[in-house]
Amino acid sequence: MVFSLTGSLKIGCPGLSDNAEFIFPMNPQERQELKGKIEEEIAAQRTLIASLQETSKPVSPDNAIGRLSRMEALSDRAVSEASLNVAQTKLSRLETALDKVDQPDFGLCQNCGYPIPHGRILLVPEATRCVPCAEKG
Ligand SMILES: [Zn+2]
User: Fold this and answer.
1) How many angstroms is it from 89 CA to the middle of ligand 1?
2) Which helix (H) or strand (E) holds 60?
3) Distance in Å, CA 41 to ligand 1 centroid
4) Which residues are near ligand 1, the ion (C-beta closer than 5 Å)?
5) From the centroid of its chain, how far is CA 11?
6) 29-77, pLDDT tens digit by residue?
7) Prediction pTM value
8) Three-state SS for 10?
9) Residue 63 class from Cβ within 10 Å (0-12 exposed, 13-18 middle, 19+ buried)?
């Protein structure tokens, strides 16, 4: 699939409803807005990761503070570790998105090549596929 990268092109992914339309490429203002959004998300993930790393530290045998038993501490730790993995994956995707945001093909679905709707990019800046393709797995 080849797109003209000059001027605005209105196209709709065939997998989406008829009234869905997007303008591609993004205008500089939208790109700037998106960049700011990605930077914010990265900062938020870093804060989250720092606090999760704190709670996913090894549980010492005598770590029974108040009513919190060792079993509870261990299960809290497992939850924190799982969240930590999710947050780290999200962070690395966001960093990739930030690297690519200035490239002309940023925002194109990696699967079908159609533009990912701007609303989706704003909501999920690390998305590399459009909704229909993402749902196909
Ligand atoms: Zn797609």
Assistant:
1) 21
2) none
3) 24
4) 109, 111-112, 130, 133
5) 24
6) 888 989 999 999 999 999 999 999 988 777 666 655 566 677 788 888 8
7) 0.69
8) strand
9) middle
